[in-house]
Every structure is written in C-alpha cells, then in structure tokens.
Amino acid sequence: MNNNDAFLSAAQQLIAAGRFINSKGWVPATSGNFSIRLPDDTIAITVSGKHKGHLEIDDIMLIDATAQSLDGKKPSAETLLHTSLYKHYSDIQSILHPHSLNATLISKVFKTEIILKDYELLKAFNGITTHETQIVVPIFPNDQDIARLSVVVEDYLKQHTDCYAYIIAGHGLYTWGRSIDETLRYLEALDFLFECELRLHGVKN
Fold it and tell me: What is the pTM of this model?
C-alpha cells in the first residue's frame, strides 16, 4: 500500500468513526478531533471546524510528526495533543477526542481524576483480564495554551505508564489505541463507565 492509499484508507476510517461517534451524541456542533498514524509516521487528522458526523475526504488532512500541515489545510488547535501522544506511545495508531456529555460532567464532579474499579467492562482495555482491577483517568485543567497543556500531559504520562485516556476539564476526552477499532472500543467502554459513576454519585438518573 502506497502512502496515498494509506491516507485514503485512514480518511475513510475516520469518516466512519465520526458518524458512529456522532450517532452517540458525543461530538456536538463542530467539537472533537480524530487522527490515525500512517506507516510513514505522517498523521491523517480531521481539519478544524467541521462537524464530525458529516465528514468527507476533504475534511481529513495530512500533518507531520511535529503537527505541521503537509497539504495546506488548517489543523485543529489541539493537534499538538495528538502528536505528543504519538511521540510518547510508539505502538498506538489512532487517537479519538470527542466532547461527550459524560466526560464533561465527570470533570465537574471529580476534579483531578476518576478511578474506575471492579467493573467487568474494564476487560475492554488491552492487557486487563479481570474485573478485580482499576484504571485511573486523570483530569487536567483546560488551557487555551495547547503547547503548555501538552507538556502537562506528557509529564503525567511519563510517570504513569498504565494510562488509557485523559479528560480535559469542561472540555472532553482523549483516548488512544493500536487501531481505530480498539480506540472506539475504549471510547464506548469509558462512556459507559463514566455514566455508571455519575449515577452512583447522583448526577444522572
């Protein structure tokens, strides 16, 4: 597969993911951004300002590993959060960032982290084979200075090697995986588990 074919395949996967995520109500208005790393380490990523439930091929752009546009299109302001994750995790191929209601509410209830413990659905995450475990999803304060925020996230990930996702407070969720399908699985599992915790704390009926 040449790079153009790889890009088109990635773009089609991102379009399909956008439609699925939109069907769940997780990307209202023009929120969110999604990406896939290509075999040559360039990155296919959604352009800025497009509704993720109605993406077309032209709404996917190509950037390099330093977040620079390779085709003249405008990337999201949060592109650095994608490239920093790809730099940190050499084995991941996909990153999804929706603005789901449950993730946003979680950040209002749990200020610094949410601990998901003793749920059967934790087995949805790579490497977990029992419900008798827990994962910690950190919550970072929102920051319009994305370069500064990316450094905060990087510093956390250097100290916590078992992280599957993080939340930006009042904003949305980032999760990543070795394929778009794995990342979608993580996203769906996290949303369910967040809702469980919100109901347990009396936030949702």
Answer: 0.95
